UniProtKB/TrEMBL annotation:
Residues 1-10 have a biased composition (Basic and acidic residues). PROSITE patterns: STAS (PS50801). Residues 1-22 are annotated as: Disordered. The lineage of its organism: Bacteria, Bacillati, Actinomycetota, Actinomycetes, Kitasatosporales. Residues 17-125 form the STAS domain. PANTHER family: ANTI-SIGMA FACTOR ANTAGONIST TM_1081-RELATED, ANTI-SIGMA FACTOR ANTAGONIST TM_1081-RELATED-RELATED. Pfam families: STAS_2 (PF13466). This is Anti-sigma factor antagonist. It comes from the Bacteria. InterPro entries: Anti-sigma_ant (IPR003658), MlaB-like_STAS (IPR058548), STAS_dom (IPR002645), STAS_dom_sf (IPR036513). Belongs to the anti-sigma-factor antagonist family.
Length: 125
């Protein structure tokens, strides 16, 4: 699911208090920070929507700096994953916190979003 290297990536939205987008090799990484709930989920959604544009997006949502997330965040992730899949791409989560695993298990989303421990090809420093 590697996009064409000659195909320009869509311009990401400006960073906000809860999300920023960056490129990492073939991936579009959306880094999410802080508490993600009904009041802040739209700030993450704008980054995920932009990342899902274009052919075959390969999106990694980095949740390692999230201190709280609820079903509002899960709804945003599910919608973005569906959009990415419709474009021939994929969306995966990067998460190492037990609270994220518990939420995914409780919501029945562990098979849809099996969390990766880190960004492939990046060293954690």
């Amino acid at each position: 699911m590697t996009p064409d290297p000659d195909e320009p990536r869509p311009e990401p939205p400006a960073p906000n208090a809860h999300a920023r987008t960056r490129a990492s090799g073939a991936f579009t990484v959306v880094e999410v920070t802080g508490e993600i709930d009904l009041a802040t989920a739209d700030l993450v959604a704008e980054h995920l929507s932009a990342a899902a544009l274009g052919p075959a997006p390969d999106i990694l949502v980095d949740l390692r700096r999230v201190t709280f997330l609820d079903c509002s965040c899960l709804r945003v992730l599910c919608r973005a994953e569906t959009r990415a899949r419709e474009q021939g791409g994929r969306l995966r989560l990067v998460a190492d916190a037990p609270r994220v695993r518990r939420l995914l298990l409780g919501a029945g989303l562990m098979r849809r979003f099996p969390p990766l421990p880190g960004i492939p090809g990046e060293r954690r420093g």
